[in-house]
Amino acid sequence: MKLLIDFFPIILFFISYHQASFLVENTFIGGLLDPTKSELITATIVATGVAIVASFIQVGYHWLRTRKFEKMHLFSLALITVLGGLTIMFGNPDFVKWKPTVLNWLFAAVFFISFFIGEKTLVERAMGNQIELPDNIWNRLNMAWVVFFLISGAANLYVAFFYALDKTEKLRMDFWVDFKLFGLMGITLIFIILQAIYLTRHISEKEEAIEETVESEKRQHESENR
Q1: Is 65 in the same domain as 105?
Q2: What is the sign of the dihedral through the CA atoms of 15, 21, 25 and 30?
């Protein structure tokens, strides 16, 4: 459920981009747009506007449910408002294309800085109440998130500006929109699954160590009572 909420603006961006013609022809949105703009620019402006509204809804919904704001949502809202606003204002898709890269690299920086600020890394602060792990495992997990965000940002940058340069601008934009949803979401899901497997292994090892310790103490206690 949380993952769906996190990707809510991206999902609506994807849908509204590919259904931009329908929205322009059948809703009030058509009256707000310049009819001389190309199909590509119109679809990008429509999708970006929907994503901005969806981001405000996302932040508001999370606050109503928890009475607190999630920093990731606020960072995303700020970026889509600024970069998306520039795309709408100038009719240039390049601004909004930068958003996933800037957001991912910003998170990478925050996770990396947490190594040097405070007693715990960001991952341990987020998950430390649920599970106990050695410091070196927490550090590995935190660095894994740093690398994940760096790779995600670089992948978006490549697809947005360097992939299939021999294709038309419309086809390249279509591919980027699809990648933005399915590619980045797929990368995220794979990473979360791998992290879960890694955590499960170490949790199992710790449980086995605890059981061995308890069994050893039990045998020692029995031996002393003989």
Answers
A1: no
A2: positive
Separation between Cα atoms, residue 86 and residue 93, nearest integer Å: 9
Average pLDDT taken over every residue of the chain: 87
Q: In total, how many domains does the chain have?
A: 2
For the segment 74-122, what is each residue's pLDDT rounded down to a tens digit? 999 999 999 999 999 999 999 999 999 999 999 999 999 999 988 889 9
| Residue at which a domain ends, from 44, 73, 92 | 92
**Does one domain contain both 144 and 210?**
yes
In the chain, DSSP finds a helix count (H) and a strand count (E) of: 11, 0
Please tell me the predicted confidence (pLDDT) of residue 210.
43
AA identity, residue 50: V
Question: Helix or strand or coil: residue 5?
Answer: helix
Are residues 136 and 113 part of one domain?
A: yes
Joined tokens for residue 213: 């310790």
Q: Provide the residue range defining the domain that includes 42.
A: 1-92
